[in-house]
Amino acid sequence: MNMFQQFLCQIFSNQCQLTYLELDINQAYYNIYQCLKLPSHSRLNTNSHEFQFYCITLRCLKIHLKYTCFLEDLVERTPNLEQLSVHFQQLQRHSERSDSNIQDSILPNKNWFNKIPKLECFTMKSFVNDDSEFIYLKWLLNNINYVKKLEIYLYKNEISKTDQTIWKSIIDANFIRQYCLPDEIINLKYFYFYIRLKHQLLLNNIEKIINSFKTDPVFILHQWTDVKYFYDEYRSYHHIFSSNFNKFQFSDFLMNHASVYDWLGNRHIGLHLNLSIHSFLEQFDKQCPSITSITIYPKHYIDESIMETLLTIIFEMKQRNLNNNQFRYITKLRFGNNYSRIIQPFGKLTDQDKIHAKIYSYIISMTVQLKYLLIERLEWFLYIIQYAFDDLRMNALSTVRHIEFGISSCHFGNNESIHIGKHLVPLLSTFMPHVQTLRLWRPDDFPWTSIRPNFRPIQYGFSIRQWQRYLRTLESITEHVNVFECDLCQLVEQLKQLVYLDIYGSTASEKVEPYRLMVQNRFPNSRIDIQISRFRLWM
Q: CA torsion sign, 308 to 314 to 319 to 320?
């Protein structure tokens, strides 16, 4: 048993006192999924080196699994579990896939009430590929038929295999009752479902499907009759779901299919930057009354006609003065995502970059109390200032207190790209002087000011190899310590309210201690945490 297997066994034993746990082992090897399969004599063994069988404190568990067999063993160890949320990659029990290994394993059918009798809420998300997986799903639902709340998310891409007869059925009340509910409904009060099926053809009996829930005795009795359906023409997805099911996080088709989205309880929405943004902003008050956080995902490749349309949209938004709507009270904006240190050097500014800059500047200007701003690449913000400043409302960024940027490498890339970091502090001190927390995402070292000399493009390969050798020298380490000290001093001097700096990067192990000593000497009253992949400074 390896270390991680021992760790899992310890979590689900009396050595663990957790009441709430989120666990993701979706990427783990199959042997990891076998670690809870203890022989019967081990379960009774009380030797100090053996883990006791039960974790009696755990009440709520959210777990992401690749193989379902782990769940079957897990319920043996968590007798006081009250809430269980399981996300499967698919309903596959073992690493070697076969239809028989699912069907044979589910006999005899044993209810889990004797194992986890306090379970009240069960949520399951999974792709379901074929009929055998529906059989397993039904077995699973019958095992937890005593819960009070049940949520089911099912997904399926293209239907092609001959063993997918169930997916070829009409997804109506009869389908849901037969495949998404237990055979016997005992205590169930709250039932929510969402099904997404990819199919090229639009169904011609949508009204009949919806009405089937309004006439079905089971759904009438439990008041589960309010069901919605829509077809996503762009992605060829059929969506059918309980009407009060807060499912969607992306809004490309929000305005055309408003009934799909129940935003009353949601706080965040993701939006792809395309032609739908105009309708989104116009109808924001009606569709998104509680939204306070928005992530906008840029389109990196847009054809000429769409670029022209987007420019027209920008002009129309300015003319209509849409900044009087609920959007004014957005407090968190993300332009792209920064959860990776892979930040490519930027190239020559394009017409699309200028369009993005204008759209971003206008969206920022619509807010009046923006507190959190994430911009995937620092040059995007530079473009906003350089090419869309006239579209940016005066003092639009003065309320920002937390800012995140991705900054490309100071060592690798073209001569302009490596020096992008020099703009960081001037931009912040000018447009966001009240920033309190700053997070940077770097592909390599922590300093954001480059000391690399400019290379002639024709000699880049030879020059970069020389530079890589130089980076390993003591002279280079000393230079980078000095430039990092200058970066930090300039930052602290210009941003008087800064209290926390967080940098995700990747520095050489030889630099960790020199950086630490420099910071301790320069900022003796501060707290620091320096590792190879992260630098944190509390002022």
A: positive
